Amino acid sequence: MKWILYISDFMIPLIVTGVIIYGLLRKVNIFDVFIEGAKESVNIILTIMPTLIGLMVAVGIIRVSGSLNILEVFLRPITKLISFPVELIPLIILRSISSSASLGLVLDLFKQYGPDSFIGRLVSIIMGCTETIFYTMSVYFMSVGIKKTRYTLVGALIANIAGVIASFYITLYIFGK
Amino acid sequence: MLNYIWAFMILLGIIVAAFTGKMGEVTNTAIISSTEGVEVCIRLLGVLGFWMGIMKIAEKSGLINLLTIKIRPILRYLFPDIPDGHDAQKYIAANMIANVLGLGWGATPPGLLAMKALQELNLKKDEASNTMCMFLIVNISSVQLISVNIIAYRAQYGSANPSEVIGPSILATSISTVVAIIFGKLMERRKKI
After folding, report:
1. What is the pLDDT of residue B131?
2. B140:A57 CB<8 A
3. ipTM for the complex?
4. For chain B, which terminus, N or C, has the lower number of CB atoms within 10 Å?
């Protein structure tokens, strides 16, 4: 399974090289264009910063209060069956609801367990293969005035659950406990 | 929706803290966490700026148009109801490419344009078409190759090898996307009968 780790190292440098060479060949003013694109990121950050502040405070409060421990006590028997880390249950629930709120939890887990622990790696992979369902659905459907969403929600939930299960076994298999 | 979730989290946290005797920590955490929110954004600004700059080069050089043509067979399979060359195809392609490259926020603008184009093809205006359902399910199954943000955060929190999760993520996300497509196709078929 080592080759998967090699792909990880090469991916970003290869994409960057490819894009720059293609841009040069097409005689694009690559640095000017780069700056133009990079400028847009400032607006995005300014939009998400207030949300992130608000949600990180909420996540922080709920974490120090010990509420998550109570939730974990209830869910422990179920997760113990498949030896899935209980600490991740709140994250999985939040992940479908809000991307920034789940991000707050992820950073919290990184701080607590370290990004290179089993939990740290599993969390990173889960974040890579799941998506915020409610945000995406409401923004996309609301933008065109659709009220009946039919089987979209069920499909999205199934896809996310499949992603979480796959992440768990892949992390276990590639990195070990 | 987020109104209630946010209120619920803060109120529940404070009420539980009152019982567990953690009130002092709640105050401290509120201050520390809000500062942390700003710090995270500033770090993220660097990565996002770099990545969006690179994306812009790909767009201006025509690389994205080229990729749209390349992934047309996939689009035809996933969304057979969209006629070839329709605008919806182009926007879905741009949205998917942005998703594949892990540009979560960069994917939303073309995604919304795609929905608009799909609505033109939709017969019942208040009900999602098969194409829309498939588009959203696949979108939510997350087709991204690289989660740039996660790698940045891993680095920020002192990972020895922040990018080691890219390969495993690709594997996991492929599985969830395949499950999503199978589900979508099954539902489409059921509807036809």
Report:
1. 95
2. no
3. 0.74
4. C
Residue recorded with tokens 């629930």: A93
In eight-state DSSP terms, residue B81 is T
Q: Nearest by CB to B142, which of A5, A163, A170? A: A163
Positions of chain A with pLDDT under 50:
1
Q: Where are the alpha helices (DSSP H) in chain A?
A: 2-25, 30-65, 67-81, 89-95, 99-113, 118-129, 133-143, 152-175
Q: Which of A56, A121, A131 sits opposite B37 (nearest CB)?
A: A56
**Residue positions counted in chain A:** 177
- Residue A33 CA to residue B116 CA, distance in Å, equals 28
Residue type, B126: D
Q: Where are the domains of chain B?
A: 1-46, 62-192
Q: Answer whether A171's CB lies under 8 Å from A118's CB.
A: yes
Spatial distance between the Cα atoms of B140 and B159, rounded to a whole number of angstroms: 28
pLDDT at B189 over 80: yes
Task: Note whether B153 contacts A159, CB cutoff 8 Å.
Answer: no
Average pLDDT over residues B76-95: 87
Expressed in percent and rounded to 5, the helix, strand and coil fractions of chain B are 80, 0, 20
User: Which residues from chain B sit within 8 angstroms of residue A98, using beta carbons?
Assistant: 2, 5
Burial A105-115 (b: 16+ CB within 10 A, else e): bbbbbbeebbb
B103 vs B106: CA distance, rounded Å: 5
Instruction: Tell me the C-alpha distance between A159 and A153, whole Å.
Output: 10
